């Protein structure tokens, strides 16, 4: 820790009356989360930050506290000390791994937030299934796995094919389809050595997995917030079909093209799931499969959805999910759901092989220019960066989102721009000795 909140002078009482609301971020996350700090800045908030170490977010924070090497009780004590010196009005996280830490800090500081139990229900894939089942929400057969013997028993009980995932996983990493017992044993032996939870305020050990029945059918995500137990759902987003071998996100579309009755059933199922988990104050990012038996919850995250979701929802519905999550944390009224305006579609570029990234110039006679139809282009890799593919890594190269007056219009615009974006990337194998000049990012 490089800064001690106990050493800072308390804010005088007369200054507190006019000072902007103070919001504590738990973990900035990666630079992809910059938009959440931009939202807090637009709302006129004074940003405080508890982070593992200094990074890109320093420029946003009124005060930063670094916790690398600290235990969870120490981190909570640091937050309490800060709160006594400069009273906070809210605490928030947009980082999946720190949902329980955020809940614990909020409860200890008596600020709006989930109970620690509810946060753990949303974070642990095993506890989530248990809570949903207790709440009467339909779930596939599931078992916790921590050894080859328990995995063999789980395969017999759950049946195959099935899905094996880390109990404390995130971003669809290490999620794999299982078709045989031997495959399951081989994957468990491999993943037990690989899987770690490190992108969080404090490191914690894992080692447990969940085997659950395979849910088949189209998948959607549902974006919203819950405040004082009341759920506001802003968008249903259709997901592009994923590769069963890795389950990496490849694209989204909103508004959903599913029948209205199906969409209502999805919303009802998510609301039941939120209640079963005990979530009361947080963002909601739910993943739902549309099976032959009806909607079934894959997972419910107690935070805002990541990557292109924020931009799609803002462009199509006029709802800023980051701002709504912050309003919940500050106990301020959230906006009601809004009707869709047009259609937003995104595509994520996923490398097919490992190597290093290079960018090459696109056709100079027809540059990729910004237009009212282009929502955003985000490059997640820079020239020279290494990229890995499952199971060694779960990288993507970029994502692009466009808007159209209807689905066909948006899809046509997306295809044109995606092809040109794909042509800008070259993945050169590590073994190759042929140099490729690294260009600056193409103009979009």
Low-confidence blocks of residues = 1-17, 433-444
Mean pLDDT: 89
The first-level CATH class of the largest domain is given as Alpha Beta
> What fraction of residues sit in β-strands?
15-25%
Please estimate the helix content.
25-40%
Secondary-structure-derived class: alpha+beta
Number of structural units classed as domains: 4
Strand order of the largest sheet: 13-12-9-10-11-14-18-16
Shape: globular
Q: Helical stretch count?
A: 12
Radius of gyration: 22 Å
Q: Which superfamily, in CATH terms, is the homologous superfamily of the largest domain?
A: ATP-grasp fold, B domain
CATH topology heading of the largest domain: D-amino Acid Aminotransferase, Chain A, domain 1
Query: Distance between termini?
Result: 40 Å
Largest sheet: 8 strands, antiparallel
- Tally of strands: 19
Task: Walk me through the structure.
The protein has 444 residues and is α+β, with helices and mostly antiparallel strands. It folds into 4 domains: 5-111, Rossmann fold; 141-213, ATP-grasp fold, A domain (Dna Ligase, domain 1, 2-Layer Sandwich); 216-341, D-amino Acid Aminotransferase, Chain A, domain 1 (2-Layer Sandwich); 343-444, Aldehyde Oxidoreductase, domain 3 (Alpha-Beta Complex). Helices cover 31% and strands 24% of the residues. The chain is built from 12 helices and 19 strands. The protein has helices spanning 13-18, 34-42, 72-85, 99-108, 116-123, 125-134, 148-158, 181-194, 260-277, 309-317, 321-329, 407-424, and strands at 22-26, 46-51, 63-66, 90-92, 142-145, 162-166, 176-178, 209-213, 219-227, 230-239, 251-254, 281-291, 294-301, 343-349, 355-359, 374-379, 386-387, 398-404, 425-428. The strands form 4 sheets. Strands 13-12-9-10-11-14-18-16 form an 8-stranded antiparallel beta sheet, with helices on both faces. Helix 4 runs antiparallel to helix 5, helix 6 crosses helix 9 and helix 7 crosses helix 8. The longest helix is centred in the middle third of the chain and has 18 residues, at 260-277. The model is unreliable at 1-17 and 433-444 (pLDDT under 50).
């Amino acid at each position: 820790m490089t800064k001690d909140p106990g050493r800072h002078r308390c804010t005088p009482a007369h200054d507190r009356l006019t000072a902007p609301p103070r919001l504590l971020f738990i973990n900035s996350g990666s630079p992809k989360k910059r938009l959440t700090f931009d939202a807090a800045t637009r709302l006129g908030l004074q940003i405080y930050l508890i982070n593992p170490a200094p990074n890109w977010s320093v420029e946003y924070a009124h005060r930063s506290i670094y916790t690398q090497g600290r235990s969870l009780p120490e981190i909570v004590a640091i937050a309490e000390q800060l709160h006594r010196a400069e009273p906070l009005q809210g605490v928030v996280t947009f980082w999946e791994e720190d949902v329980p830490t955020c809940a614990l800090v909020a409860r200890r500081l008596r600020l709006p937030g989930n109970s620690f139990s509810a946060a753990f229900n949303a974070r642990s894939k095993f506890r989530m299934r248990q809570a949903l089942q207790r709440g009467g929400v339909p779930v596939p057969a599931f078992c916790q796995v921590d050894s080859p013997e328990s995995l063999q028993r789980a395969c017999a009980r759950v049946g195959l094919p099935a899905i094996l995932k880390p109990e404390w996983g995130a971003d669809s990493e290490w999620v794999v389809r299982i078709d045989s017992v031997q495959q399951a044993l081989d994957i468990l032996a491999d993943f037990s050595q690989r899987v770690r939870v490190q992108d969080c305020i404090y490191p914690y050990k894992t080692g447990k997995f969940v085997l659950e029945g395979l849910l088949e059918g189209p998948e959607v995500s549902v974006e919203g917030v819950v405040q004082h137990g009341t759920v506001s759902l802003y968008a249903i987003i259709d997901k592009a079909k994923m590769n069963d071998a890795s389950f990496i996100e490849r694209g989204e579309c909103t508004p959903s093209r599913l029948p209205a009755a199906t969409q209502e059933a999805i919303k009802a199922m998510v609301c039941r799931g939120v209640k079963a988990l005990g979530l009361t104050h947080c963002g909601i990012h739910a993943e739902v499969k549309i099976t032959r038996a009806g909607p079934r919850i894959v997972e419910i995250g107690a935070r805002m959805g990541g990557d292109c979701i924020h931009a799609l929802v803002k462009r199509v519905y006029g709802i800023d999910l980051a701002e709504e999550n912050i309003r919940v944390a500050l106990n301020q009224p959230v906006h009601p759901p809004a009707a869709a305006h047009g259609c937003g579609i995104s595509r994520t570029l996923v490398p097919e092989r490992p190597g290093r990234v290079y960018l090459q110039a696109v056709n100079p006679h027809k540059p990729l220019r910004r237009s009212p139809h282009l929502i955003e282009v985000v490059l997640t890799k820079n020239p020279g960066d290494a990229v890995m593919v499952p199971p060694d890594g779960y990288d993507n190269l970029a994502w692009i989102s466009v808007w159209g007056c209807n689905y066909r219009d948006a899809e046509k615009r997306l295809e044109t721009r995606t092809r040109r974006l794909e042509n800008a990337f070259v993945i050169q194998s590590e073994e190759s000795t042929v140099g490729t000049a690294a260009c600056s990012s193409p103009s979009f």
